[in-house]
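As the next step, I wrote out a protein sequence along with its fold in C-alpha coordinate form, included below for the reader:
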Amino acid sequence: MVWASSVACRLPSGETKRDSEAGYETRHFFERPAEPAAAPVPGAGGAKVRYRVMEGVAENLIPFVPVHVPRLLT
Protein backbone atom coordinates (compact mmCIF):
# COMPACT_ATOMS: atom_id res chain seq x y z
CA MET A 1 0.00 0.00 0.00
CA VAL A 2 1.15 3.51 -0.73
CA TRP A 3 0.25 6.60 1.30
CA ALA A 4 0.14 10.18 0.08
CA SER A 5 0.65 12.98 2.53
CA SER A 6 -0.90 16.35 1.83
CA VAL A 7 0.75 19.46 3.24
CA ALA A 8 -1.91 22.18 3.20
CA CYS A 9 -5.65 22.47 2.73
CA ARG A 10 -8.04 25.31 2.02
CA LEU A 11 -10.68 25.87 4.68
CA PRO A 12 -14.28 26.90 3.92
CA SER A 13 -13.31 30.42 5.04
CA GLY A 14 -10.75 30.57 2.20
CA GLU A 15 -7.65 30.58 4.41
CA THR A 16 -4.98 27.90 4.12
CA LYS A 17 -3.95 25.71 7.03
CA ARG A 18 -1.36 22.96 7.45
CA ASP A 19 -3.05 19.57 6.97
CA SER A 20 -1.50 18.09 10.10
CA GLU A 21 -2.93 20.94 12.19
CA ALA A 22 -6.38 20.82 10.55
CA GLY A 23 -6.46 17.02 10.89
CA TYR A 24 -5.51 17.20 14.56
CA GLU A 25 -8.27 19.72 15.27
CA THR A 26 -10.87 17.70 13.34
CA ARG A 27 -9.94 14.43 15.02
CA HIS A 28 -10.06 15.88 18.53
CA PHE A 29 -13.37 17.58 17.79
CA PHE A 30 -14.98 14.20 17.01
CA GLU A 31 -13.19 12.05 19.60
CA ARG A 32 -15.01 11.32 22.78
CA PRO A 33 -13.45 9.92 25.92
CA ALA A 34 -13.94 6.18 26.23
CA GLU A 35 -16.55 5.15 28.77
CA PRO A 36 -15.23 2.76 31.43
CA ALA A 37 -16.56 -0.76 31.01
CA ALA A 38 -19.52 -1.47 33.30
CA ALA A 39 -18.50 -5.11 33.71
CA PRO A 40 -15.09 -6.75 33.55
CA VAL A 41 -13.91 -7.76 30.10
CA PRO A 42 -14.46 -11.53 29.58
CA GLY A 43 -11.25 -13.52 29.82
CA ALA A 44 -9.21 -10.55 31.05
CA GLY A 45 -8.96 -11.66 34.66
CA GLY A 46 -5.52 -10.70 35.94
CA ALA A 47 -4.20 -9.69 32.49
CA LYS A 48 -1.26 -7.29 32.68
CA VAL A 49 -1.45 -6.27 29.01
CA ARG A 50 -4.39 -4.77 27.18
CA TYR A 51 -4.55 -4.28 23.41
CA ARG A 52 -6.51 -1.76 21.40
CA VAL A 53 -7.88 -2.97 18.08
CA MET A 54 -6.82 0.11 16.10
CA GLU A 55 -5.25 3.41 17.05
CA GLY A 56 -5.73 5.20 13.72
CA VAL A 57 -3.60 7.11 11.25
CA ALA A 58 -2.93 10.80 10.76
CA GLU A 59 -5.80 12.66 9.12
CA ASN A 60 -3.59 14.00 6.34
CA LEU A 61 -2.52 10.53 5.11
CA ILE A 62 -4.45 9.38 2.05
CA PRO A 63 -4.28 5.64 1.19
CA PHE A 64 -3.85 4.62 -2.42
CA VAL A 65 -5.56 1.26 -2.78
CA PRO A 66 -4.21 -0.99 -5.55
CA VAL A 67 -6.71 -1.77 -8.31
CA HIS A 68 -6.33 -4.38 -11.05
CA VAL A 69 -6.67 -2.83 -14.50
CA PRO A 70 -7.26 -5.46 -17.17
CA ARG A 71 -4.79 -5.35 -20.04
CA LEU A 72 -6.24 -4.36 -23.38
CA LEU A 73 -5.57 -6.81 -26.20
CA THR A 74 -4.50 -5.09 -29.40
In short: Helices lie at 19-30. Residues 1-31+58-67 form one domain. The mean pLDDT is 77. The longest strand covers residues 2-5.
